Amino acid sequence: MNRTLTLLAAGLTALMISTPAIAQSSDTKLEAPAPRPAYQPRPDVSQFVLKTYYLSNISQQNDANEILIALRNTLEPWVKMYLVASENAIVLSAPADQQAVAQKVIADLDRPRKAYRLIFTLADSDGGKRVGVQHFSIVVVASQRAMLKQGSKIPVITGTFGKENDSQQTQFQYLDVGMNFDATLESTPGGLYLKSKVEQSSLADEHMSGPLAPEPIVRQTSLEGTSAITPGKPITLGSVDVPGTTRHVDIEVVAEPVS
């Protein structure tokens, strides 16, 4: 009995020695994740260089702010930078390698923007026959807004102050009557997109009765929307039938590059 137990123990010992551990026989090896790249250590202040970058193609402070945000997200956090809005300039204090990165970012973003001449055409037809054409032209820089107004200002009484007739004062508000164009042109890799608003207003022949008898009646037509346009190719923004008449007005626009 003792001999049997001895042989059994010897067999188990041999089996344990000849059989590798389960963890060692596995083909899957767990590796620690690679450490995230850390920011460069802040260099000595003596290595810092102070430079001023003037933005030559920026006309709005919002555009300059966007370039400043791009620099802050690209450069090391210890880089010092300031926007001088009155001079359209960015002051940057950093080592030479960070200055090189900043110079490239500014060169890529501070680019001249194309300008286009927008020609709005209002074609007036009566009974299918063209009876009049009006052209309105404005120059728009890409990503900027332009407005054009043509017409008259009509005074409207909005209030009267004072108890006695000699000391009473009348307050007026002026209404723009005529044509009003509001356009913003966006240039994208996919083409040009025009966000426009065209308003036409005029005084009506009829007048109000009662307490509002002196007040004028203003008729207004408004067209607003966003359209994809191709330079040199006119598109129709909309058409309007004049109520009570057989007249019909087509509103067209064409964008021409300004050299």
Supply database-style keywords.
259 residues; alpha+beta; 4-stranded antiparallel β-sheet; 4 helices
What's the structural blueprint in terms of helices and strands?
Elements: H1 2-18, H2 22-25, E1 49-54, H3 61-74, E2 80-84, E3 89-94, H4 96-109, E4 115-126, E5 129-141, E6 145-161, E7 169-188, E8 191-203, E9 218-229, E10 235-241, E11 247-257
Antiparallel strand pairs: 1-3, 2-3, 4-5, 4-11, 6-7, 7-8, 8-9, 10-11
Give a nutshell description of this structure.
With 259 residues, the protein is an alpha+beta fold. The protein has helices spanning 2-18, 22-25, 61-74, 96-109; strands at residues 49-54, 80-84, 89-94, 115-126, 129-141, 145-161, 169-188, 191-203, 218-229, 235-241, 247-257. Helix content is 19%, strand content 47%.
Question: What class would the helix/strand composition place it in?
Answer: alpha+beta
In spatial order, strands of the major sheet run: 5-4-11-10
**Main sheet attributes: strand count, strand direction, barrel closure:** 4 strands, antiparallel
Mean pLDDT: 81
Strand content: over 45%
Question: Which stretches are low in confidence, meaning pLDDT under 50 for 5 or more residues running?
Answer: 12-26
Shape: flat
State the helical fraction: 10-25%
What is the first-to-last residue Cα distance? Answer: 110 Å
> Tally the helices: what do you get?
4
Radius of gyration: 37 Å
Order of helices and strands: HHEHEEHEEEEEEEE
Per DSSP E runs of 2 or more residues, the count of β-strands stands at 11
